[in-house]
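Narrative summary of target 7.
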Amino acid sequence: MSEKKQTLGQAIDQVVAALEGLDAQARKTALQAACSHLEIELGSSAPTIPFRSVPPPSATSHAQKPDTPTAGTITDIRSLKEQKQPSSARQMACVVAYYLQELAPETEKKETVSTEDLEKYFKQAGFKLPTKLEQVLADAKRSGYFESPARGEYRLNAVGYNLVVHTMPKRQE
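Modeled conformation, tokenized:
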């Protein structure tokens, strides 16, 4: 019996697929449990948002709605943009997609973004609109940040997610 070695990309795709059906709080819990089980310590040197530290659920704690912001969390696109400091329209598109997937109020949450979403949230964030807004998502996909499940719709992939959560803002040396 020969076992095929999995690529990093395939492993990321499997993790993302396994977590897609869960709400944001359940995703964090699952990732923390997996890291703990695998004895992986995620570095604290990289800035993370908005997950300061999530206390483990206890039988005596009161359940909190996953979309209810807690102290220290980002609750609007402008604050997220200011924290992440995107340096290009492609990076800002990733910030918008992350916001809509993870942080937006329940009525605004969505898994994919379109050019119309970029226009709306670039304006709300106070980010300069590019001359060719319709080209931004295609360029971001070519850069490896998005996948396109349907024409005109783009979903942030693991590379784009990691850019927003672990790489931005770029540190000044």
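The two ends are 51 Å apart (CA to CA).
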